[in-house]
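Let us work through a complete example step by step.
Step 1: write down the sequence.
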Amino acid sequence: MYRIRRRSLLLAAAATPAAAAVPARAASGGHRDRPLVIGHRGAAGWRPEHTAAAYTYGAQTGADWIEPDLVPTKDGVLVVRHENEISQTTDVASHAEFADRRTTKTVDGRSVTGWFTEDFTLAELKTLRAVERLPAVRNRNTVFDGRDRVLTFQEVVDLARKLSRTHGRTIAVFPETKHPTYFRSIGLELEPRLAAAVRRNRLGPRECVIQSFEPTSLQRMTGLGLPLWQALGTTGGPYDLPSTTYQDMMTPAGLARIAEYADWIGPDKSSLTGTSLLTDAHAAGLRVGPYTFRSENQFLPPEFRRGTGPNDFGDAFAEYALYYDLGVDAVVTDFPDLAVIARRG
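Step 2: predict the structure and record it as tokens.
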């Protein structure tokens, strides 16, 4: 289990060139003057999310990790989409041959209508093309609509390794298990498939960190020897633990419980302002990587907004500086290039 080997990995990281050891170093404690930059869905601010173009641009501009969200196909292949409902991120609605696949399902207690990855084989999904999920916010990204196919997790691993060779530094993958309880209920468990991919590719702690909002999903992955990241919401609680709230998990007692199986927490960035969460998490031995940093005014605190348009860019550099000064260990961002520039000071 990764946490048992924390001390030895820290010593190993200290003896390894920094460019080759970024993910392991951060999982073991991190350098406070150099927080990690994690490309959220690649570089979703500049390219349609979860595409080869987004991951490539994120790596080119300095992202240390790239994030693929994982959902399964009907034939059990892990593919990379933010949600299993794909009408917002692909051109599936324009495919007449799939019109009868549109349906309504209950996913994590919510009624969702659309087209779902678990109703398509991989071959069928490969006929679709990715589109910008937020065209009204990021109209500039729509120029890339239709250029990229849906990727498998294996393709993202292969791409990350290719990009690592190209740029001379390790670029880690940061997969998230999406709706794991739901997929377990329909016979498409995510964890065994992810574990098989980790073992098949011999992914170590420098190349892969696994995240989930569901604690039981992470606990199923503890035998892989990889760092684990407990994501935390702002309201409600994890779907797999209905009697637990995210607020409970962010107390000192809750953080101590997380530290029994995980190495990181990933709270919403708002959870760190005016609270002791960062200090409490560090005291529990957990690293902290808040999400999601975006540059448009509507996603920035009022004091960092510029102009009147909600989709205009505000002072994103000031927000990064604020959180870097707080001592976070990573930032999860749609704009990894800006986070890297801000990190230089």
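Step 3: interpret the result. Residues 1-32 have pLDDT under 50 and may be disordered.
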